[in-house]
Amino acid sequence: MVKVKEIKDGATLNITVNKNFYMMCKSLSFYLFQQIGEKQNEDYLKDIMSKSYADLDDLQKSFYTIALLLAEIEAQAKDSNQYEEKEILQPNDEGFIEPTQD
Question: Considering just the CA atoms, what is the radius of gyration of the chain in Å?
Fold first, then answer.
């Protein structure tokens, strides 16, 4: 037998999230999205929203979970007026500068 830690049934927690953690979550969601795109078709992605959580595979469950976490972070940020929208230039946009690593 092994002991594991988890929150109690019915527990609801409030956590503090800073921008670094939020950006790490966004990075993870993008990575998972890339994994889905490389391995599966469009229907595979649509299944995430139409199937029950129990019927999803591990990759779908992971993407769904991080998407819910990001949505909640963004909803709380918006409710507390700590949310902003930015426009980001794409490679074909006028004025786009290719990012570099320093």
Answer: 18
Helix axes 58-79 and 19-39, enclosed angle (nearest 10): 150
Question: Cα torsion at 16, 74, 64, 18 (round to 10°)?
Answer: -30
Burial of 60 (0-12, 13-18, 19+ CB in 10 A): buried
Domain edges within the chain:
19-79
Predicted pLDDT of residue 20: 96
Instruction: Summarize pLDDT for 32-87 with one digit per residue, the tens.
Output: 999 998 778 888 989 999 999 999 999 999 999 999 999 999 999 999 999 898 88
> In whole angstroms, how far apart are CA 70 and each of 29, 42, 53, 65, 80?
9, 22, 17, 9, 15
Give yes or no for a contact between 48 and 63, defined as CB atoms under 8 angstroms apart: yes
